[in-house]
Write a structure and sequence with these properties.
Low-confidence stretches: 1-9, 296-308, 427-437, 746-750
CATH class of the largest domain: Alpha Beta
Number of helices: 23
Distance between the termini: 34 Å
Number of strands: 21
Structural class: alpha/beta
Radius of gyration: 30 Å
CATH topology of the largest domain: inorganic pyrophosphatase (n-terminal core)
Shape: globular
Strand order of the largest sheet: 3-2-4-5-6
């Protein structure tokens, strides 16, 4: 164990405010606050997010005037509805829904399957979800052969198919009609299908392009129901309402899990869907919610599940508590388990499937942690985090379904883009044969602001077998023998883009607040911003110069609870995923916090709680340390002035030695400067050893062979004890002698 910042990035994050303070945009904040009766803080948030008139702000907060767009504005929607209705009317038709193995794909399959079967319980219908490890993503001819052998006449793709031009042609040769529904970017040419429904089509007049795959399926259901209402002489909006009542919950889960922008139509779908989920009548969803809220399905010594802890169902809970369990099936086993959970009407079967998903997710977590630990070791051995701009590491056995989420953890730790490559499952020839140089590895990468990962991969396209993705997430295939070249090339690209500078890991906050601004009333107001997610993030704030009153380790040391005083307002804060031992500040320090507001419910009592995403010493303290560091660098290189206050006394040497030796005996060997000074001064806070003296003492200890001192990163020290050679006379230090010679005062002995 050590005191390095193991729970946070090795690079300091840059905090960026979305709106400066004060922002009163031509009186807009005051007008919104007055017209809507909201607090000035909420008005500032609304203006910062582009809602700068009372009417625009009202529409955002209430969603009362948000329009659900006409589904028939999507090209080919009418043709798709007509073909589906024809299939529903013909008993000889056999429909297959072809999906993807992630949450968006599973919910898409489930929603359309349940809708069509609800229309005709005797319908001849199946679904097909390919295996991630054996088949990979997308429609394949081999899968179509299997589907054709089962007598399919109509295949409806969901969350996939937009690039399956050859495969759709192949399906036609097999006598299968295809309807493509997808939300991924389109190529110049589209598949020659009966219908291709995608909001990204260049000829699409649909006003909102950011639907999830399940969102496109939801619009197809809306269109079918609208057509039914029209035939009945009812308003078409009645059909849309039926679609919302029946399937907004599944659409919400897939939209959240696929990290789609929660704006426009998505926001209304998710808001309506979340209200349904809280009171769901779907046996599978109810079982999964209960399993998740009872400790992820973990049973106690008596064999009984722990009592459920009721959680408010919001977008965050779906994204972090429910979606990973659904995703785990496709990553570690078969996505069919997740689909069957949504499709079953048997509560006992649902309980079994939910428990299985929780079990698979725990296996995923174990595998993810193991892979992350191996990746961190590999990075330290093979990469240079101080000089590299993109981390690239490979392994023969990492699971394909895991490396993407591990890459995210690497980004968080090192503050730069990361690409993990695995050769798990690649062709190796004969069993137990040595790996061949032309083995193809599959990679998954995550990036940070400033480096478009898809463009970066494009710069290396000539040495990659395949690549694709988005700005912050992408995938690739590469030959084993090309990895070193790929690592060099993509780092060259990143350095050129950054003009030789470092990657800046940025986190955003809405605005700065004072302690007096933080109230239960404000936390209640902020719930009007929900559902929150991409493009509509949970309101976040910066609080400066808060005094740390107490630091407590919670969750078996994995998390930290803080009590801080800001402007006389005593506040509780929780920093999940940050061990208390990894903090670079201590009790009585003044710190700046980046956080969101939450209302904590415990034993019927509600209290305000800060959910911390980052924290650091306050600017004044940081600036003082940086100034001391610059002064010490001047002393070290002989350009800075020296005065008597910088020369350590015998007492200073003794205090530093005792503190460091005590920690070394306890197994701690690595410290930030802040932590080291706290350890040295905690018993004598009124007579502190300052930064400059501490650094001088360290250099003298290293010179005299008392400790060996390394600096693995800026402002971090690794201390190693040196076997004792008896008493050391510090008066023999050349460094100490030089400092005294440069001192303007009278030289004194220790």
């Amino acid at each position: 164990m050590n005191f390095m910042k193991t729970g946070k990035s090795t690079k300091e994050k840059i905090w960026e405010l979305r709106c400066a303070q004060p922002t009163d945009d031509g009186g807009a904040e005051a007008a919104i606050s007055s017209a809507l009766g909201v607090s000035p803080i909420v008005a500032r948030l609304l203006c910062g997010r582009g809602y700068k008139t009372p009417e625009a702000a009202r529409i955002f907060l209430t969603m009362g005037d948000t329009l659900i767009h006409d589904p028939f504005l999507l090209p080919d929607m009418a043709a798709a509805v007509e073909r589906i209705e024809r299939a529903l009317a013909d008993p000889s038709e056999h429909i297959v829904i072809y999906g993807d193995y992630d949450v968006d794909g599973v919910t898409s399959v489930s929603a359309l399957y349940l809708y069509l079967l609800g229309r005709d319980p005797g319908l001849d219908i199946e679904y097909y979800i390919p295996s991630r490890s054996e088949e990979g993503y997308g429609v394949t001819c081999a899968a179509l052969d299997t589907i054709a052998a089962h007598g399919a006449t109509l295949v409806i793709t969901v969350d996939t198919g937009i690039t399956a031009e050859a495969e759709v042609d192949y399906a036609a040769k097999l006598g299968i009609d295809v309807i493509v529904t997808d939300h991924h970017e389109c190529r110049e040419t589209l598949p020659r299908a009966v219908a291709v429904i995608n909001p990204h089509r260049s000829d699409s007049p649909y006003p909102f392009r950011d639907l999830a795959g399940v969102g496109v399926v939801f619009k197809l259901i809306c269109a079918c129901e609208s057509a039914i209402s029209k035939e009945r002489g009812e308003p078409e909006s009645d059909g849309v309402r039926r679609a919302f009542r029946g399937f907004a919950d599944l659409a919400a889960i897939g939209t959240i899990a696929d990290v789609m922008p929660l704006t426009d139509e998505n926001r209304m779908i998710v808001a309506y869907g979340l209200s349904q989920i809280e009171h769901t009548k779907r046996p599978g969803l109810a079982a999964l919610l209960e399993a998740a809220q009872s400790g992820h399905g973990v049973k106690g010594a008596d064999g009984q599940a722990s009592a459920p802890k009721k959680r408010r169902v919001n977008a965050g809970y779906i994204g972090f508590g429910i979606a990973p369990k659904i995703n785990a099936a496709g990553r570690m086993a078969s996505a069919d388990i997740a689909a069957d959970l949504f499709l079953t009407s048997d509560r006992r079967r649902a309980d079994e499937l939910a428990a299985r998903l929780c079990e698979i997710n725990r296996e995923r977590q174990v595998e993810e942690n193991r892979t992350a630990e191996e990746a961190f070791v590999r990075i330290e051995e093979e990469c240079d985090p101080e000089n590299d701009r993109v981390i690239v590491v490979a392994d023969d056995a990492w699971k394909q379904g895991i490396i993407g989420i591990v890459a995210s953890r690497v980004v968080e730790k090192y503050g730069m883009p990361a690409i993990l490559i695995t050769f798990d499952g690649c062709h190796r020839g004969e069993e137990d044969a040595e790996p061949q140089p032309d083995d193809i590895g599959k990679g998954s990468g995550r990036s940070v602001k400033g480096i478009n990962l898809c463009d970066a991969l494009g710069s290396c396209a000539d040495i990659l077998t395949r690549y694709g993705g988005h700005e912050l997430a992408a995938g690739l295939s590469v030959e084993r023998g090309r990895i070193d070249e790929f690592r060099r090339r993509i780092n060259e690209y990143a350095r050129a883009r950054l003009n030789g500078g470092e990657v800046r890991l940025t986190v955003n906050a809405d605005c700065e607040v004072k302690g007096s601004d933080l109230t239960m009333e404000l936390a209640g107001e902020l719930r009007a911003f929900e559902p929150c997610g991409v493009a509509n993030p949970t309101p976040s704030f910066v609080l400066k110069n808060a005094t740390v009153m107490r630091i407590s380790a919670i969750g078996a040391g994995k998390h930290t609870k803080l009590t801080v005083n800001a402007d006389g307002n005593v506040l509780g804060a929780v920093w999940f995923g940050m061990p208390a031992a990894s903090l670079d500040f201590h009790e009585n320090d003044k710190i700046d916090l980046l956080f969101t507001l939450d209302i904590n419910e415990f034993r019927g009592i509600s209290s305000l709680q800060l959910l911390v995403s980052d924290a650091r010493l306050c600017d004044d303290r940081r600036n003082a340390i940086n100034e001391d560091r610059r002064r010490f660098d001047g002393i070290r290189n002989g350009t800075g002035s020296v005065d008597e206050s910088m020369i350590p006394t015998r007492r200073d040497f003794a205090r530093v030695y005792r503190a460091l030796n005590r920690e070394l005996c306890g197994g701690h060997d690595t410290f930030t400067a802040s932590t080291a000074l706290w350890l040295i001064n905690r018993d004598m806070p009124n007579d502190p050893v300052g930064y400059l003296k501490f650094r001088v003492v360290l250099d003298i200890f290293d010179e005299m062979g008392i400790f060996r001192v390394d600096e693995p990163t800026a402002d971090c020290f690794r201390i190693c004890a040196v076997p004792s050679r008896g008493k050391t006379d510090l008066e023999g230090s050349r460094l100490l002698r030089r400092l005294r010679e440069r001192c303007t005062g009278e030289n004194k002995t220790i």
